[in-house]
Amino acid sequence: MNRLDPEGAIAEAAEAYSNWGRWGADDRIGTLNFLDEGKRREGAALVRRGTAFSLSQAFDMNGPQKGWRRRTNPVHTMLDTGSDAALGVQGFPHGLGGADDVIAMPLQCSTQWDGLGHIFDHGKAWNGRAAERVVTADGDLVTGIEHMAPHVAGRAVLLDVGRVIGVDGELPDGFAITEEHLTATAEAHGVAVGRGDLVLVRTGQLARARREGWGDYAGGPAPGLSFTTAGWLHRTEVAAIATDTWGFEVRPNEFEHAFQPLHQVAIPHIGLLIGEMWDLEALAEDCAADGVHDVWLTAAPLPITGAVGSPVSPVAVK
């Protein structure tokens, strides 16, 4: 890998790991095609105790966003309150009162999925389509994230790289997770990763941010997947992958003068669903305690018509 040639490395990986045409010219869901009914039955059979874990960060004004590309933390406003009810100003009969609220936020400000219309490569979107014909001012007209909503439920595998490879359960910022690290972690956990799996990669950065403050969590240095894992992501035929970091891949990126090069291969060429800023802490603690690292996971995006990303409230069940 020539650190001075991101353009060449991206082009080479894009050609080697392309899934364009694999599921037909009209495909809208990419690698979620790997997650079929059999994989869902396999995932459902993993529920033994019935213990559920929320994998979502909070959606509130105390989140990590600092305004990069106009991303802000959620603004939650009450439209009707208990005070309104007590004062009798709501206009309902026979003592009825209620509360109502509204939220304004970027769709990728906290725990979220990157949709297939989120990233392009040289003007090409997923499956080789022209980006300008896919995502317009009206939204993603072809691969809007609403098409993925019925599909994201199945077997998930937690790869706690922070615990297996890191120090005190955490990887330092700038640590590039390679295929060898992922494989070693899976072996340490006694699990296999393969076709149709939903992979959760814990680095420990979120735990550090909660302990020390957000700092540059949203966009700054972070541990994450190495660009060299593109082949692993393609070869294993995983349905989706999510991490506890803002950007999924290692930051700073591994090339000079590059920005998110693994995204540029994984989304428009592999067709991979990518999750970011997931809270894997409670699940990881439980997995470390009982030694079981594969779980049932349901993590449907909000079916927002034409959206290129979506908040998500994933729930893992053991």
From TrEMBL:
InterPro entries cross-referenced by the UniProt entry: KFase/CYL, KFase_sf
- SUPFAM superfamilies per the record? Putative cyclase
Enumerate the Pfam families for this protein: Cyclase
Descriptive protein name: Cyclase family protein
Q: Which Gene3D superfamilies match?
A: Putative cyclase (3.50.30.50)
**Superkingdom as given in the UniProt entry:** Bacteria
